[in-house]
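We modelled the chain as a single entity of 346 amino acids. Its sequence is:
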Amino acid sequence: MTRTSREVRLVSKPAGLPGPAHFVVTETPLPVPKDGEVLVRNHYFQVFPAMLRTMIGGGTEAHPALFPGDTLLGPAVGEVVSAPGTSPLRTGELVSHWLGWREYAAVPTEACTPLGDDTLPDPVAHLSQGWTAYGALTRAAKVRPGDTVFVTGGATAVGVLAGQIARLLGAGRVIGTTGSPEKAARMVAEFGYDAALLRGAEPIADQLAKAAPEGIDVLLDTVGGDQLEAAVAAARPEARLVLVGVLAAQLSPEGTGATAPPVTFDASLLILRRIQLLGFTAQDHPDALPEWIERFDGWLRSGAITFPHVRVAGIEHATRVLQETIDGRHLGTVVVDVNGRADADR
């Protein structure tokens, strides 16, 4: 086993959006697990700019603040390479955990989720954001057959799966938003959407009124801002509006990403139309995870669903791909393959 490990650290806090100059890939001594920890060799970790921007900007209850000198954090899949005899984990077992952005991690046993030997056809799929989409659509929005579903950020890691999941749950019409004509075309051709609305064209509210003239029944909102305002205006009686992210604030050059600016809408609509407006985190519904894994596995193997993602080879390219993802160059989940096996955009 190597005596060193590479990891990506924050060098300085940016005034706006972070760039490659704010990070460094450095070599450190191999971490030594403490009592109750196992040593994991990471195979893959997810590049999740919105979450990193929030942590760099000051953190939240869910995500701790990052300071200069700290190693970045994020979802990862790796292999246990050493574990004490008392550990429930075994050497060679695949696990998911939160200490990505490094080759090796000493991870508390209770912070590791065993992935089993035969769940999901590709271990990378455990880094999908489908759990968030599935939990929000089944636990909070409770999609019903025939519902018109509106997903903001339809080409994001959450959005590319949300459209497909909504369709599989029986939605009658699925509408999403994106900032790229190329992504919009793929959303409609590949990911279950009937229509894709383009940011920066005419106002989203006007586009949504044309795409869903009778209104929407469900919102899965990853963006906030004017897109949330448009959804409230278009909501039908007893609509369920579920908020899972605020990308408009997290990836805005202004602000820190840790707080979102106010959103303005007519609150009387919530009362008169009996609209539910709900915040949702998948961590609040652990019962959804095994159910999601089972259904995701079956859907992947049958071809009913695809997992759009990009793999980038080598931890040394992690800061570059972070910048590319902030710039909107990639669709779906973006993953760094620590061991260096590159694949095409999927």
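As a brief sanity check on the tokenised model: The domain at 4-128+307-337 is CATH 3.90.180.10 (Quinone Oxidoreductase; Chain A, domain 1). The two ends are 32 Å apart (CA to CA).
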